[in-house]
Write a structure and sequence with these properties.
The protein has helices at residues 20-28, 31-42, 48-57, 66-73, 80-89, 102-112, 140-154, 171-176, 187-192; strands at 6-9, 93-101, 116-125, 128-134, 161-165, 179-183, 195-197. With 212 residues, the protein is α/β, with parallel strands linked by helices. The chain has a single domain, classed as HAD superfamily/HAD-like (Rossmann fold, 3-Layer(aba) Sandwich). Helix 6 links the parallel strand 2 and strand 3. Helix 1 (20-28) packs across helix 4, helix 2 runs antiparallel to helix 3 (48-57) and helix 4 (66-73) packs across helix 6. The longest helix has 15 residues, at 140-154. The radius of gyration is 16 Å and the shape is globular.
């Protein structure tokens, strides 16, 4: 009998259809600048940590009520519920690791029934965003480390792991996993992925059978 799978997904533009930083930036009036920096980072033209700091700085002075407003606008990607259910039916676990933010990922994880999740945290002082993050930044290396850590903690061999993402900062975790899946991937990601799928995450369910 094959070991139970571990499937780790990126959050923004993979688990959900949105980029959370852009939803937050709408309230701060910095959407256009943030979107431009996001796109450059996803193409691999900018260091992720640097681009994150640049984008978060545009949120300074925004009230923390923006987190709830952003979450209410999140659109789930088609097929995510079916994929989570399929992994759980096989006794496996689903994790989401995000260059986005815990303040939005936490309620999302609860709603989706995720087993594991990790993201950046935004600094809030007296109810207002400072434009800075707290703690270590979740970048491509941190995503790969999370996949290894979660696999080891559950006794799941790497041969039973799948990583799904769309951007350059997902490549390291996709390389660590037995199966790296590009979902609506940028050209570089599609080129390096083992498999590419589009539009519906349930298309990843048959791929579970290929995990050892």
């Amino acid at each position: 009998m094959a070991p139970s799978p571990l499937v780790v997904l990126d959050c923004d533009s993979t688990t959900i259809q949105d980029e959370v930083i852009e939803l937050l930036a709408d309230a701060a009036g910095s959407r256009e600048r943030v979107a431009e920096v996001t796109e450059r980072a996803m193409r691999g033209e900018l260091d992720f940590a640097e681009s994150l700091r640049e984008r978060v700085a545009t949120l300074a002075g925004t009230p923390e009520s923006v987190f709830r407003e952003a979450y209410e606008r999140v659109r789930l990607t088609p097929g995510i519920h079916r994929l989570v259910a399929a992994v759980h039916e096989r006794g496996g676990r689903v994790g989401v690791v995000s260059g986005g933010f815990h303040e939005v990922l936490d309620p999302l994880a609860e709603d989706l029934g995720l087993d594991l999740w990790r993201a950046n945290r935004l600094e809030v002082v007296e109810g207002v965003l400072t434009g800075r993050t707290r703690g270590a930044i979740v970048d491509g290396s941190a995503k790969a480390a999370a996949l290894r850590e979660w696999a080891a903690a559950s006794g799941t061999p790497l041969t039973s792991t799948m990583a799904i993402g769309d951007g350059a900062n997902d490549l390291e975790m996709m390389a660590v996993a037995a199966l790296g899946v590009a979902f609506n991937g940028k050209p570089l990601v599609r080129e390096r992925a083992d498999v590419s799928i589009e539009h519906d995450l349930s298309l990843a369910i048959p791929l579970l059978e290929h995990l050892g």
